[in-house]
Amino acid sequence: MYHNRILCIVFTLILAIGITIHTAEAAESITIETSNDVYYSGDFVVVFGKVQTIFENTPITIQILNQGNLIGIAQIKVAQDGTFVTSFNASGPLWINDGTYQVSVAYASATAQTTFEFFRQSIDKSSASFPVNIPNSGSFDVGYTIRGGEVNGITMNNDRYSLLIEITMNSSGNIILKLPRESFDAQKSDGVDDSFIILISKENSEPKNFTQVEYEEIGTGTDYRTIRIQLENDDKLIDMIGTYVIPEFGSIVIIILVVAISSTIIISKSRFSVRYN
Predict the structure, then answer these.
(1) 17 conformational bin, left if phi > 0, alpha if psi -120 to 50, beta if neither
(2) Torsion from C-alpha of 65, 66, 70, 72, nearest 10 degrees
(3) Nearest C-alpha neighbor of 238 from the set 163, 180, 186, 171
């Protein structure tokens, strides 16, 4: 009898440890994303993700919070492959503050968080392609979609072999650029994609006081690279530097460009990205 009790206790401990490990694995493997980084009043915030460990009859809870206040909540089932998805309509009396919103997910003892930016103001959105003239070599098209402003022109900056994009921003927003690889790109010598240098100025006359900003690459293919740049009210110029500009100019060592423009870059911070040297 005594030995049976010992065996029962050992079995219970093993079971408890197994459940704890199982839960810990779930906590480490849960992921969460939103369909966009920036939303505006009336948009649908799509939240999706995946859990590795599935607990039967256990829903996943998704909350949206702003400044500690609950904006939206949903409890949904997890699919058999561990994925989940739901959406929230960014409208109504609770969506009143511009700024950063937090998405929090809880499943069993596992949690995960992510954030997005929300703006109440309805911002016009326009899409088009802009021809960029190449000195003595014709032109190529740059496709764009902009929210919160308009594109006035896209030209080749011959001093830096870069694209100079003139914009008028009436509010915070973003611009998406579709860049043809054969005409403008940033690649290392082995063909691996490199990062562009993105500079933004609120002046269109000297001194321009450019600041360097981060960007998001949202699409990569054999012919095009598509990036999204967050913009602020009164931004006027985007100077985009790559390592390759049309066959006539060939490859450019990007560090030389950095040295050449370092005196025009200042340090700043914004709600969208860290602007740095």
Answers:
(1) alpha
(2) -60
(3) 163
Each residue of 188-227: pLDDT tens digit?
777 788 999 999 999 887 888 899 999 988 888 889 998 9
CA 169 vs CA 126, 145, 177, 260, 269: distances in Å: 13, 13, 16, 28, 18
Mean pLDDT over 75-102 rounds to: 93
The H-or-E segment that residue 250 falls in is none
Start-to-end Cα distance in the chain: 74
The confidence band for 33, taking pLDDT boundaries of 50, 70 and 90, is very high
The pTM for the full model equals 0.53
Class of the 27-119 domain? mainly beta
Burial of residue 14 (number of CB atoms within 10 Å: 0-12, 13-18, 19+) = exposed
Amino acid letter at 133?
N
Q: Cα-flanking dihedrals φ and ψ of residue 23, to 5°?
A: -65, -40
